[in-house]
Predict the structure.
Amino acid sequence: MPANLTPEYEKAELRYRQAGSDEERITALQDMLAAIPKHKGTEKMQADLKRRLSQLRKAGQKSSASKGPDPFHIPKTGAGQVVLAGPPNSGKSSLLAATTNAEVKVADYPFTTTLPQPGIWHRDDIPIELVDTPPITPAHVPPGLMGTLRNSDVVCVVLDGREERLLEQSEEILGALTARGLELVSVPARDIPASEPGRHAGLMVVNKAELAAADAIPVLRELYPRLRVLPVSARTGLGLEEWFRALWELLGVIRVYAKEPGKPADMQRPFVLPAGATVADLARQIHRDLPDQMKYARLWGHSRFDGQQVHKTEALRDRDVVEIHE
Ligand SMILES: Nc1nc2c(ncn2[C@@H]2O[C@H](COP(=O)(O)OP(=O)(O)OP(=O)(O)O)[C@@H](O)[C@H]2O)c(=O)[nH]1
Ligand SMILES: [Mg+2]
C-alpha cells in the first residue's frame, strides 16, 4: 500500500536528516509522527519512528545529567527570533551591541565570538530577538550552529562592507548554508510552501557601510535577486531603522492591543500574533479558556467604525485594538 506522505511529513523528515543535535532529531521525529498518515500502509513506519524516538529519549536522559543545556539552543522570545550569521570580524557582535542591551565582546580580530548570544531589540513597541553567533568560514561551520539557524524565524547574513573580498565572502557564506540544506529567501516563513523545506526566511546586511565601496550594494542586489540586501553600520547607526522594518516585515506578524471594557488600551505592550490571526487567537494568548468564554469583541482599527462589535472569527490587522467581552 502506498504511504501517501504529506508535505508536512517530508519537511519534518528533511529536518530529521539535517539535524545537528539529538534534541533537534527528537523534535523532528515527533513532527514526523504527528504528520504521518495513520493507516495500514504506514504502520511499520510509525513503529520505526516510535522506536527511534524512544532510543533518543533514553540516550538524552543518560547524557543530560552530565552535559547540561545545549548552548546552541536559544529559546525564542519577543515578536520573533533573528539569527545573525556571517564571516569573522564582519560586525555581528557590534550590531547586537548597537541595538540591544546584551553585553558582547567586540574586537578587531576574527573568531571573537564562540557561542550564540541573544539580545532584545526594542523599537517603537516591538521587541525583536537578535542572536549573535560565532563566525562561519568556508572551512568551518561551528557544530550546532545549523540547528540555531534552522530553528530561527529569520536568518540575517552580516557581511563586512570594508572587506575587499566582499563578493567572494557572500558566495562562501551562502554556499556553506546551501550545502547544508538552508537556502535563504526574503519571504516570510508562512509564505514558503511546505514543498520547499530547505527554504528559510532571510536577508543580507552589509555592515560598516560607511566605508563600503559605492557599488557594493547594487552588485550584491543584482547577484541575489531573491534576497533583500541592506546597508547598515553598527558604528554610525546608518540603515538600522530600515533594517528593523525589513525584519518586522519578514517575521510576518502583527501587533494587537488588548483593552479591558471601561479602561484605556495598554499601548505599551502589544500582543504579537501571526498575520491572519483572529480575535479568538488573541483571546487564547490572554487566557487559555477565553476563546470559549468570550461572547463578542469590540474593535478599533480596521473596523468600519470605532468600537464595532465583531465575532471571534474576525481576522485582525496590525495595530488593531480589541476589547473582549465575556
Ligand atoms: N568602521 C566600522 N567598524 C565596525 C563596524 N561594526 C563593527 N566594526 C569593527 O569591526 C571589528 C569586528 O567587530 P565584531 O563585532 O567583533 O565582529 P564579529 O562579526 O562579531 O566577529 P567574530 O565574533 O570574530 O565573528 C571591530 O573592530 C569593530 O569595532 C561598523 O559599522 N563600522
Ligand atoms: Mg562576534
User: Anything to note?
Assistant: The longest strand covers residues 199-207. The chain has three domains: 7-67, 81-251, 253-325. The mean pLDDT is 92.
